[in-house]
Amino acid sequence: MFEGFDLETVELSEASLRVRHGGSGPPVLLLHGHPRTHATWHRVAPLLARTHTVICPDLRGYGQSSKPLDTPDHSGMSKRALARDMAELMMHFGHARFAVVGHDRGSYVAFRLALDHPARVSHLAFLGQVPIGEALERANERFARLWWHWFFFAQPTKPERAILADPDAWYGNTPQKQAQMGEDAYADYRAAVHDAATVHAMLEDYRAGLGIDRQHDMTDRQAGHTVQCPTLVLWPTQDDPEPLYDDILAIWRPWAAVLRGQGIQSGHHMAEEVPDELAAIVLEFLDES
């Protein structure tokens, strides 16, 4: 995986992050989702690294990065806290301004990064959904049926017990998934979902989502804060976004000053399923914006 990339642990003020980085040129930060690690990008990152400096961390709480202390409001796994990590990480590598591409839970970190640190983010690519606050406002029967896990994961204790009783069964780990992800990326991901501390931190991510993250989104909306950089929204047509939201870009328009978007013929994990197409679209966006 990641031929030509370096792997290191970076100590930040609030977290210790495992980070893979390589390439040269304008910087791009790639943020993974649940329950993956940075290894989910192993097919996309080398394509971007031909013309860009690419940085792929394990988010705080995920993979081999450090886990925050628990707090009643779950703020240690809030997207604001994770975004602070990313702003500090990129400055560690000497990048005052950079593009960010986020998938799944990582997309929420990317969104928060663009709102909280607007001078730092040159481009935002949001892969998968709509902002957390917007999603929760649309949490109707259809949402609850398809995305019931948001509400189960927010419960205390029981999700940990359910997942850790048999992580392979819970996450549907099969030879087919291993083939899709690639052997090394699959091994990295599987080690993460078998680690109790990582599973707990990933669930804290969802607990933060239903509380403090939603509050932050709604506060920004009330204040009229928007993403000022060019924004690309991509969604997999073989997954849930289109059934959940009739017009994904209409939900995004109040949030982004310069917006484009499209569906991609893929399941949920676009970086693993259609890496060439995804990389080509992202590169076009970065070059033209």
UniProtKB/TrEMBL annotation:
Organism of this sequence: Deinococcus ruber
GO MF annotation terms: hydrolase activity
SUPFAM superfamilies cross-referenced by the UniProt entry: alpha/beta-Hydrolases (SSF53474)
Keyword annotations of the record: Hydrolase
Domain of life the protein comes from: Bacteria
Keyword Nucleotide-binding part of the UniProt annotation: no
UniProt name for this protein: Hydrolase
AB hydrolase-1 domain residues: 26-241
Entry-linked Pfam families: Abhydrolase_1
Signal peptide coordinates: none
